Amino acid sequence: MTSSTRHPARRRRAIVILAFAIYLALLAWVVLWKLEVPWIGDAAGLARPLKLVPFVPSGDADANAPAEMVINLVLFVPFGLFVGTLAPAWSWWRAGMAALGASLVLETVQHLISTGSFDTTDLIVNTAGALIGWVVFVAVRRAAGERTPRIMARVCVIVAALALVAAVAFVASPLNYGPQRDVVVERTTSTH
C-alpha cells in the first residue's frame, strides 16, 4: 500500500472519530439531560433505589414504557455503526461489551447526578440497539467488500450530522421537558 492510498484512509478515520465524538456528546446530552441545559437533580448524593429487575415494575419503579425502550434502542444503533467502522475486526461480543460499558457509564452517571435512575432495562435495550447497528455494519461489509470503509465513513458522518440537526431542531422547538425534580422523602427509623 503506497502512502497516497494510506493518507485518505487516515483522514477518513479521523473524520469518523470526530463524527463519533459528536455522536457520543449528543448521546450523553440526550440520556443525561434530555437536550436541556445540564443540571443536577435534587436527590444527587442521596440513596435511591436501583431498578435491577428488567422490563417489569420493581420497587417504586414502573415497567418501562414501550416508546422509551424504542427510543433507547434507536439512540444506540449508531453506536454499533461507529464501533463496526472504527474496529471492523471486532466480534459482535466485543462490540456488545463496548456498548454495555458505555451504557453502564451513562446509567451510573445519570443516577449519581439524579437526572434519572439506574435501570437494567436500559442497559439491555441500549446494548441491543448497538448490536443492531453492528449487524448493519456487517451486512454493509458483506455487500460492499473493499468499498466498506468509504461507505461507512459517509454513513457515520451523515448519522452525526443528522443527530446534530435533530438536536438543534429540538432545542429550537417549543418542546421543553425541563429538569426532573426528584421527590426527596426523609426516612425516619421507628423506635417501637
UniProtKB/TrEMBL annotation:
<feature type="transmembrane region" description="Helical">
    <location>
        <begin position="12"/>
        <end position="32"/>
    </location>
</feature>
<dbReference type="InterPro" id="IPR006976">
    <property type="entry name" value="VanZ-like"/>
</dbReference>
<keyword id="KW-0812">Transmembrane</keyword>
<dbReference type="InterPro" id="IPR053150">
    <property type="entry name" value="Teicoplanin_resist-assoc"/>
</dbReference>
<dbReference type="Pfam" id="PF04892">
    <property type="entry name" value="VanZ"/>
</dbReference>
<keyword id="KW-1133">Transmembrane helix</keyword>
<feature type="transmembrane region" description="Helical">
    <location>
        <begin position="69"/>
        <end position="90"/>
    </location>
</feature>
<feature type="domain" description="VanZ-like">
    <location>
        <begin position="20"/>
        <end position="139"/>
    </location>
</feature>
<protein>
    <submittedName>
        <fullName>VanZ family protein</fullName>
    </submittedName>
</protein>
<feature type="transmembrane region" description="Helical">
    <location>
        <begin position="97"/>
        <end position="117"/>
    </location>
</feature>
<feature type="transmembrane region" description="Helical">
    <location>
        <begin position="123"/>
        <end position="140"/>
    </location>
</feature>
<keyword id="KW-0472">Membrane</keyword>
<feature type="transmembrane region" description="Helical">
    <location>
        <begin position="152"/>
        <end position="172"/>
    </location>
</feature>
